[in-house]
Input
Amino acid sequence: MMDLPRERQPDPALKKRVVSALVTAGLVRRRRVWPVWVMAAAAVVVLGVGVSVLRPRHTLAPGRTYVLLLYQDSTYRMPPKGHSAERVAEIARWADSLYANGKLERGGHLVGPGPIGGLFMIRATSDSDAARIAATCPFTRYGGRQEVKRLEE
Amino acid sequence: MTDDLALVERFLRTRGEDAFDALYDAHTPALYALAMRLTGGDQSEAEDLVQESWVRAVRALSSFRAQSQLRSWLCGLLVNVRRVRIRTDWRMVDAPDLEPVAETGGSDDALDLERAIGTLPEGARDVFVLHDVYGYTHREIAEMLGIVEGTSKSQLTRARSLLRSSLP
Output
């Protein structure tokens, strides 16, 4: 009789049901759900060498996290054919320099449909500091439009 | 034990989903196995039992005392949830005392036993599963089920007798 198994794995969907019931009853706080575009950052594909993506944790500069989005829309001057890697490497050097100063958490070049061509999570002490850091990105030299937003943590 | 207490304390401190995940992962396989046995292998009913048990457990977790094992406490909750559901579920009112054991079509002794357990009357099944499968004492079972130890012993004797006569 004692040989019967005392444990049995339920359907994984049960956990979602249970958590959902607990959250609905106000007994458990739902974990933070990241917006889709931040999740996309986790799947960033790096082109070029040295772009600071998925690196080990490092000491971050004091301040808050801002998200810098780079738009490759109508104002952006694309690199000449065959020179894309140089453009990416140029931005990668900028990213590396920020990373070394603790001003960059992670980020990189985004590949896929849609105008957003790059995403960087930077550290800044204020909105104006974030704008200043964003302005140093070589992307702006090519007419690229940027957007900087503070991440609500 | 210490791990369980740490998990409970972490959950009570944060009430977060991550902390609950750790509790869930540590104890749900045992709760689910128990639920499947108490329901005679009804997966849907077993999942409902596990869900309701966790809701009740989380409500009462702050009253959990370190003197008892968390798993025993959770299993006791599940057994009682099951008993309340039986009392309120009209489908269970006319549950037969003992149905013939279904043909298994194989020689798997454990499977035969699982199926035979599923056909036991509720009271006898609860005691048999808790005592002979999970190793709880009659005193612990009496506490879990709100019965006296003597009833637990007599239900166990009855369960064993029924199983002996129904197994090949």
